[in-house]
Amino acid sequence: MRALKLHELSLADRLADMAVDALIDEADLSPKPALVDRRGNGAHSDLHLGLMHASALSLWPMFKEMAEAAIEIGEVGLPLREALGRIGREGEQAMLTTTQGVNTHRGAIWALGLLTAAAALEPRAVTLNAARLALLNDRYAPQPLSHGAQVAQRYGARGAREEAQLGFPSVMQRGLPQLHKSRRQNAGEQNARLDALLAIMTDLADTCVLYRAGLEGLHAMQRGAQAVLDAGGSASLAGRRQLHELDHQLLALNASPGGAADLLAACLFIDRLDGAL
Ligand SMILES: CC(C)(COP(=O)(O)OP(=O)(O)OC[C@H]1O[C@@H](n2cnc3c(N)ncnc32)[C@H](O[C@H]2O[C@H](COP(=O)(O)OP(=O)(O)OP(=O)(O)O)[C@@H](O)[C@H]2O)[C@@H]1O)[C@@H](O)C(=O)NCCC(=O)NCCS
Ligand SMILES: Nc1ncnc2[nH]cnc12
């Protein structure tokens, strides 16, 4: 039998591979504060690493379909936005079937879905086109009283929607520059990725943290992440001590930065895409 050559994969196949790889790399990265990783389930009683992997793999057909819709429709506009909304909702159902009802990757479906579609349209304008798509109003989107919506009412934090509408500032201005900086400093790839996650955490209005632990949790996350970076980052002994301290603090507050984790996956996706151009 002839071996499958990677370059024979379609653009949509390759983008779906990159999105799933980014989710699996995020899940495997350890030690992440209060998140599911190779050490354990962090602040989650209903999640574990195997479930995160299964969830990520279940989303491959959805990412492929999103990329194909973008290629077929060919431009940013309401038809593509509403196609992505429909495909995203079906993907969410596939995820919930796989995880038996546990929300593993809702935020990632949103962020990586927009980025995958934008990459299929024009790989050199990914965050710009993702933001333009996020600004369009999907007329068929249900308006559930999600955790994000409840937190928006209570604290005025706008979370995942705004992050995408602004072109992913936490990724482009914090995560990616830190990833590159830590790599330049020879921190090692895993430490560079941890530093990128921490950089995202320093300023994010993570609605998962706000919902579970309020402003106290959010401030603990932001300050603790900054303290690790100030101490020298994950590759330094002082930074590692701060990282363990942050893990303990967030676990005590039951504060899981799931939004930051999704944005790290978005950061790794864009990094991979840049490398492929
Ligand atoms: C437009 C949507 C993004 C909906 O947003 P909204 O804020 O209304 O809804 P949420 O359901 O709260 O989902 C937002 C998820 O985004 C992640 N997130 C949080 N803060 C940010 C941020 N500042 N920037 C970016 N991303 C952020 C986060 O996802 C992760 O957390 C999930 C677990 O959360 P939760 O269920 O609250 O978990 P627990 O506390 O553990 O629950 P319990 O144990 O207490 O039960 C996990 O999945 C991570 O992924 C937020 O959860 C968009 O989602 C939407 O409209 N979707 C509909 C389908 C659609 O149109 N898709 C579009 C395809 S392009
Ligand atoms: N590693 C992780 N742990 C908990 N929630 C998450 N949401 C996305 N990635 C996650």
UniProtKB/TrEMBL annotation:
<keyword id="KW-0328">Glycosyltransferase</keyword>
<keyword id="KW-0808">Transferase</keyword>
<keyword id="KW-0067">ATP-binding</keyword>
<comment type="function">
    <text>Involved in the formation of 2-(5''-phosphoribosyl)-3'-dephosphocoenzyme-A, the prosthetic group of the acyl-carrier protein of the malonate decarboxylase.</text>
</comment>
<protein>
    <recommendedName>
        <fullName>Probable 2-(5''-triphosphoribosyl)-3'-dephosphocoenzyme-A synthase</fullName>
        <ecNumber>2.4.2.52</ecNumber>
    </recommendedName>
</protein>
<dbReference type="GO" id="GO:0046917">
    <property type="term" value="F:triphosphoribosyl-dephospho-CoA synthase activity"/>
</dbReference>
<comment type="similarity">
    <text>Belongs to the CitG/MdcB family.</text>
</comment>
<dbReference type="InterPro" id="IPR017555">
    <property type="entry name" value="TriPribosyl-deP-CoA_syn"/>
</dbReference>
<keyword id="KW-0547">Nucleotide-binding</keyword>
<dbReference type="Pfam" id="PF01874">
    <property type="entry name" value="CitG"/>
</dbReference>
<dbReference type="InterPro" id="IPR002736">
    <property type="entry name" value="CitG"/>
</dbReference>
<dbReference type="GO" id="GO:0016757">
    <property type="term" value="F:glycosyltransferase activity"/>
</dbReference>
